[in-house]
Amino acid sequence: MGFVGELVKQGKKAIGDTVKAGKKAVKDVTEETKRTPKNVAKLGTEALDLARNLLGQGLIPPVVREYFSYLETQASGKWKGIPSDLHSILSTYYPQVIMGNVRYAENIDTVHGMAITIDDQIFFPTSLDLYSPDSFGWLLHELEHVGQYRVAGGRDAFVAKYLLQGGMEIFTKGSFNVHDAVGLEREAIDKADRIFEAAYDKTIAHETVTLSEEVATSEAQHWRLKDLGGLFIIQNRRNDKVLDYGDMVGSNERVILFSEHPESHAQHWQLKDLGGYFIIQNRRNDKVLDYGDKIDDSHEMVILYPEHSESHAQQWSLQNVAGGYYAIKNRRTGKVLDYA
Fold this sequence. Notes:
Elements: H1 2-35, H2 37-56, H3 62-75, E1 80-81, H4 84-93, E2 103-105, E3 116-118, E4 121-123, H5 133-152, H6 155-173, H7 183-203, E5 207-212, E6 223-227, E7 232-236, E8 242-249, E9 252-258, E10 269-273, E11 278-282, E12 288-294, E13 300-305, E14 316-320, E15 326-330, E16 336-339
Helix pairs in contact: 1-2, 2-6, 4-7, 5-6, 5-7
């Protein structure tokens, strides 16, 4: 059956026993309430005082420790750090969290399908794209838990507080679905909702790639090709961001400069040699560099467009400008890649 099976089996039995006991307790409490409401209040206070006392001593149930161990075992070899370009943005909102210490693992069986945070480790049940709205919002929620661990004084103190709040909600609300009712969870939900828009806007900040008249001394027009083995990341010399693509312009994507994420296929480019010129094709969607409408009198917007290899608008030459950088020149216009 394995650990998970046994955990589920034990959990079902525990819940079943608790439900039976709960039904009896509700019946008893109802009868007692009719007779002496003060006795009910006393009973609830004594139960909560006992829970506080046990949890306050760090007496965390063994199954919780086993569950944490189960998560950590799965995460071995899967750990990822928060991308460095997000550190300064997120630290503004989570000053108590050391972003360089936070790590996360994806596709972890958390049994219930929700993310779990333990100290500065986050276990997600699915894959993430931290630059998508859903994943970014999820990360914000879990980062609040990382901060809560630090404020509480460590793992045992946080878990005790969490279990105690959950137990109190079970007692007061009569429901075992207490995730959103636990105070620590409400804090994380409220924090993520409150800061999401401002934080995400900073995260997706980018520049529009354009065609401009060549200025040999302009580092904004110099590009380095980082070889991934048949594919390239194309990095700008001035700001170190890389070619990517963003929102739609009509039926085509606008090419942008964005923070480097080597695992993102949207930032991988194949250079198809035509003999002196290249078709520059995106790995994710197979479209190629082209150009579209004018932005102003002297600049055109660079877009992704379905490949038409005979079109000079899709053919580019690499002009060596020394230091391992190139100007990337369009065959039709004679202009070079730049950004606005």
